[in-house]
Amino acid sequence: MRPFEYYSPRTLSEACNLLAEGEPDSKILAGGTDVLVEMRKSSAWSSKAIVDITRIPSLRGIGESGDWIIIKPLTTHTEVLHSDLVRTHAPLLQTAVSTIGSPQIRNRGTVGGNIMNAAACADTVPPLIALDAEIMLKSTSGERVIALSEFFVKPYVTVARRDEILVEVRFPKLPANARSSFVKLGRRNALSIARLSVAAVVCKDEAGVVTDARIVPGAAFPRWQRVPEAEKLLIGQKPSKELLVEGGKKVSEVMISFTGRRWSTEYKEPVIAVLVRRALEACE
User: Fold this and answer.
1) Residue 146 burial (CB < 10 Å; 0-12/13-18/19+)?
2) Is residue 268 part of a domain?
């Protein structure tokens, strides 16, 4: 491991100042489940400073404000898993965090870290986009709010500036007529990194007609996004087995239109269609 400077600010303003005035390639340490692994890969690690934000109490916790759920970035996956607020108003997010790593990883890994690392397999990102989440970034220059769906450029690259800290993740509570789900496919049943995943939200009226649909695949597109072409197939219809199969096939078609055909397409093309169908069936 290469030598580096270590800073442990106690306030958010102190952390922002360190990022603004310190080494240009400083890295933020939250749970450390990704950063510490990268640090040990000496050939890939170039940062000369670590800013450890874990001692800033204002960056931890889950709360609500009116119709919004607010999750602070240092909140661990385990805390999300045991949150009554999340269970009531965003159950698909709770399902997603339950699939992350092991209990030890969930105890250390944070929601903010999962977002900022921007790995294609990040399990919290598809459900958060399906929840219409937005994030707040803070620096010495001020604050800005960005829709999570607009935050990612490509895997491991975001629109965040080097001096910005993620300080809040928030999303509207799901309406009473909403059903949601998250399905994930990995190489094994535990400690698995997602090869493909799908987050879905479906709202229906009293007659059983779909009034809103949100479908967000994970590890399928160059960047996370909803699939409006498939969502439109569902809206205004009563779900049927045939309709859900059609929705899955549409997601597969759209995926290929973005990625083109490559060595993994033969596998991903039918699998993502099935995962979408299963996710939509779970919303019934």
Assistant:
1) middle
2) yes
Helix (H) or strand (E) holding 108: helix 103-108
Q: Which CATH number characterizes residue 74's domain?
A: 3.30.465.10
Task: Please give the pLDDT value at position 215.
Answer: 98
What is the reported pLDDT for 151?
Answer: 98
Range 256-263, long-range pairs (CB < 8 A, 24+ positions): 258/221, 258/222, 259/220, 259/221, 259/222
Q: Does a structural domain hold residue 125?
A: yes
pLDDT at 222: 87
pLDDT of residue 262: 87
CA distance 254 to 81: 32
Do residues 80 and 71 lie in contact, with contact meaning Cβ atoms separated by under 8 Å? Answer: yes
Distance from C-alpha of 264 to C-alpha of 125, rounded to nearest angstrom: 22
How many structural domains compose the chain?
A: 3
- For residues 47 and 26, what is the distance between their CA atoms, to the nearest angstrom? 6
State which residues form the domain around 47: 5-52
∠ CA 36-41-42, nearest 5°, is 110
Q: In what order do the strands lie in the sheet with 27-29?
A: 5-7, 49-52, 27-29
Q: Which strand (E) or helix (H) includes residue 79?
A: helix 77-81
Mean pLDDT per segment of 10 residues, for the chain of length 284 residues? 86 95 86 81 72 96 98 98 98 96 91 94 95 98 97 95 96 98 78 82 98 96 94 97 98 94 90 97 96
Residue 22 CA to residue 47 CA, distance in Å, equals 11
Is residue 116 packed enough to be buried (19+ CB in 10 Å), middle (13-18) or exposed (0-12)? buried
